[in-house]
């Protein structure tokens, strides 16, 4: 009997301690600024390297759908990130490939392989507000992969909400100046950041004239090899009525990706 | 097992013999099964119609079927085969059965009557062996940074049946080549050996796009008989092969290459002799001549701009001399040529590009048909609409020396994932003695449908 009473007391102490710790943690996260929330998003583990299939569905305002099947690889080299995407289907874009070296401080280096020309072309990295190969994602969106361009915006937490049954912080991001706003194509972005796993569940953007531009919704988020991973991204372009859906599959963080994948030779040779 | 399957098994054994050179692996049943599971078939089906505006007649009504088979083999080996079946109801581009003497027998097309030809376009095996990447077989190798005109992109010859109006990837003639690429840290050394003695396919004199410009073809003096000798074409497998090397590197944001090619120029030199007598005769003896080409390319991005260019120095180039008293009708000079291009994409979905091509003859020879310095400018404007469904562009090529040129507006629409329609015009202008002006009566309206299978 005495033994049972001791066990009960121990459980009570552990439970109270846990509650206190959770409350302290929540209180601490409640005090996070918009910038700190953005930093939490960028600090989230996304693996050193990843390979994955990506199906891009592009639907115009009349409901006509185009589908692109791709395979992509991404790898970090310290603060530098290298990404390559190979188009597999349909035939008319097959073997098109896109390579980017994303540096933390200087302009990125980007190349595009166009099979009709059989040439690797250097492309300008400043066109980050341009739309990526017919989708509603910009080159910058593709490059960031769910992370945030902290240096491009001023950040402010403006509230909290429940998105897809998950508690989220609402963070307002305003470009630091007109030039950056013009480059990005956004005058304002409102991010809804999951306060538990630090992923952006929804992002609403406005153009530089203040008109509603796009809504990005992140769905099917679950862990792959212990890394929280979005499997569906949906974008609605409110100006054009065009929609894009990205569907990720065969995601692998553990096998590793060899360095020679991220070269112009690889871009030209394809998979 | 179907006939196709037997063919693929046979093919897999041939490929495995290839691979066994480096991997000592004879195909097992398991290998065969794996090969079957990694076979990919695709094809392009295309119809093109071109209507000659000046001549008020159809230039071509062409159907193209391009099947492609890709096979992934064990140990990161790959095999690619691309064929082409082409039919043209009009038969104006290559009337009758062209001789194909410029092509080596193994690279020639099979001609089925006057209207249909069948070609093995590409047929190559790829393998990575350590730091070396091998590509063996019939293939295209593309060098250079220029668009629309060629400077270093001379590894493969070109089919001029439509002058330069056809896509380069389609008009470029693939060659049987040994292509090795060796990675050394951040630099790639490419070594190529081309025993395939195939050169530019030039339209015969009765073809719609036959060359007539005095820059390319000597004019026969009046009252003189013309005796055209057969082409003296290289035919020794080793001695007459082309060799090349390219170093590629990425340094401080710059894409750089250093290129060298020891090759036969793809257009034969037209040596001329004049025999006097009661009936004077001009004898033309076409002969392919060797040249060393040393050059390089560069490109880098600066904000919204991309700067790119290439430079090449060629030895022993031959140029026509119009003077009928000249000893052989040609003079030799080295040539320095370069192109500088500037691309701008500062407006969303818009791409603008200008290029300056210049060719300088090193030896000062005022008697030549061409100028010592030859300058050509190109301008390209492209805009994408409707999330890239619709693309409108115009390419303008202008010769500064002769005042002639070519304007090519084009619009294409992606109707469905695998279905594209396009329409365009090819408008030549300028004096008929110019490279572009010679086709000023060939202006055309062209439409096409492309279907991916």
Describe this structure in words.
The complex is a heterodimer of chains A (271) and B (453). Helices cover 21% and strands 44% of the residues of chain A. Chain A has one domain (47-269): Lipoprotein localisation LolA/LolB/LppX (outer membrane lipoprotein receptor (LolB), chain A), CATH 2.50.20. In chain A, a hairpin with a 5-residue loop joins strand 10 and strand 11 (212-224). Chain A contains 5 helices and 13 strands. Chain A has 271 residues and is α+β, with helices and mostly antiparallel strands. Chain B is mainly beta. Chain B has one domain: Porin. Helix content of chain B is 8%, strand content 52%. Chain B has 3 helices and 22 strands. Chain B has an 18-stranded antiparallel β-barrel. A 3-stranded mixed sheet of chain B has the order 9-13-12, with no helix packed on it. The longest helix of chain B has 21 residues, at 3-23. Chain B is globular, with a radius of gyration of 24 Å. The two termini of chain B are 24 Å apart. At the A-B interface, strand 6 and helix 5 of A face strand 1, strand 14 and strand 15 of B.
